[in-house]
């Protein structure tokens, strides 16, 4: 290794030691010191021009300084990232669950930091090799500098140097200049080396500290991962244990779903059969003499509860036939009657009654002949009611056949019988059809022209069918016209008085039976344990051909109590606060052995029809609202 000896050159002739030579000499010394010991792989060592070599070394020094700043910046970034990871792990440890994605992200970040530390360590290792040489150089420079022999100023001044040909004064001057230059450059080298060594030691210590902290952080991470794996394995074990049970339960659920579908269809069949799932007109022969269904009937016990329906077998669309009768008796014209129910006027279609239409089971016939065979309204009624019926019936038939279709002859369309076409007791009907103000006339606007016998005093899209200034139900036109279906309790299998009653003598229920229906209401409203809510009499008296496995009263009571601790009713002693709005019963309140219970009118009507014994029912079609009253005697 190069080892400089700093002393005055004695073999050089003084006459050649001009300023240029001294400058070259000093720069060469500095360059050799720096070039030999500052860079392990010296890219400047082969440059012959000293000025270019000096510039090269300046660039290399600047490059190393930039590299150092970059390394320090990386260390700061790693410190920040490490702190972020530590916070993440702390957060994960405090969580109930940790996702595998979060663990993978942490592992990737830690791996990235390790890679960056490895790069920094490689840089530091390179610097360490370089610094080892620099430290050796620094120590040698210091030793040499401290050992060099210099004459004191008096000796230098007085002594004449024979080898140089200089007197004492001249030699002292030259010696001082050279000595000052060497001293300054040597101190710069030592100071620079000391600074670089100090920064290296700091960076190395910081890197080692970060490495230790990262290892601790990774241990925490691995502990978190182990905890997650344990929870995951535990969960997987639990999942494995229930897999077999799950399949078994799925099979049972399939069977139960089939049973529920079957039971639901049974309940719907019961609802439709009890509610009255068709619309009846006066052709059905509305009966008026069943005193058992009258509010004044005495069932022979108390308290007794009767469910009275307002209207029956009705969709509540269009004209009420009994309402038209009441309006005609009140002096309204057929135009006024039709305007109220259909909210439209009348138009004439010339020759319509002479046009041929298709009648199912009969064949082709003229519209006018078809109308003669309709049995939709008693011919004894007021003329304006008959005329309103004639125009509504013609409109309905026109809509059904105008595009080439056929019209049926049952009450699903309009009741028709050839036997009604030529009878002396029907002359008033025939006259209503062919009157100058009704012949060939239909309702405007393509209205459906639906109608039914008794709506209960409410017309969909129109409102309460009552007298001007009157109130429902007392001033309803159907009540004025004395419709027997306006307010009636139903308990026969069909609308015929002589149809089956399932052994019951009347439609009245006792307190225990009403409480039983109230318990059914509790389950239906909560939509729980509803599958066996059927009449207890369903097997004795099948409804729509359906039988089943209904709850008995005690079972149903227990089910209701399990849903609502205040339920499980045993007896009902009264009813009050029955409210109506927009053609439906909205709420009513029962007085029970467990206190008062307010119920939703529509849900209660459903519960009543599904659970009430025999054929007792609140009549309303499934697509209409239930309008009813519960009467206590």
Description:
This protein is mainly α and 633 residues long. It has three domains: 14-220, no CATH class; 282-301 and 303-308 and 490-632, no CATH class; 319-486, no CATH class. It contains 14 helices and 15 strands. Helix 1 runs parallel beside helix 5 (168-275). The longest helix has 108 residues, at 168-275. Keywords: Coiled coil. Residues 47-123, 197-266 form a coiled coil. It comes from candidate division WWE3 bacterium.
- Counted up, domains total 3
Strand content: 5-15%
Instruction: Using the alpha-carbon principal axes, give the shape.
Output: elongated
How many E-type strands? 15
**What is the residue-mean pLDDT, rounded to a whole number?**
78
Distance between the termini: 128 Å
Strand order of the largest sheet: 11-1-15
- Rg over CA atoms: 56 Å
H/E series: HHHHHEEHHEEEHHEHEEEEHEHHEEEHE
The major sheet is characterized as:
3 strands, antiparallel
Share of helical residues = 40-55%
Notable traits:
3-stranded antiparallel sheet, 3-stranded mixed sheet, 10% strand, 15 strands, mainly alpha, 633 residues, disordered N terminus, 50% helix, 14 helices
Give the topology, please:
Elements: H1 19-37, H2 50-94, H3 100-147, H4 153-158, H5 168-275, E1 305-309, E2 319-320, H6 321-329, H7 334-342, E3 346-348, E4 356-359, E5 363-366, H8 367-372, H9 383-401, E6 406-407, H10 427-434, E7 441-443, E8 451-452, E9 458-459, E10 463-464, H11 477-480, E11 488-489, H12 511-526, H13 553-563, E12 572-581, E13 584-592, E14 595-600, H14 601-611, E15 628-632
Parallel strand pairs: 2-8, 4-6
Antiparallel strand pairs: 1-11, 1-15, 3-7, 4-5, 9-10, 12-13, 13-14
Helix pairs in contact: 1-2, 1-5, 2-3, 2-5, 3-5, 6-9, 7-9, 9-10, 12-13, 12-14
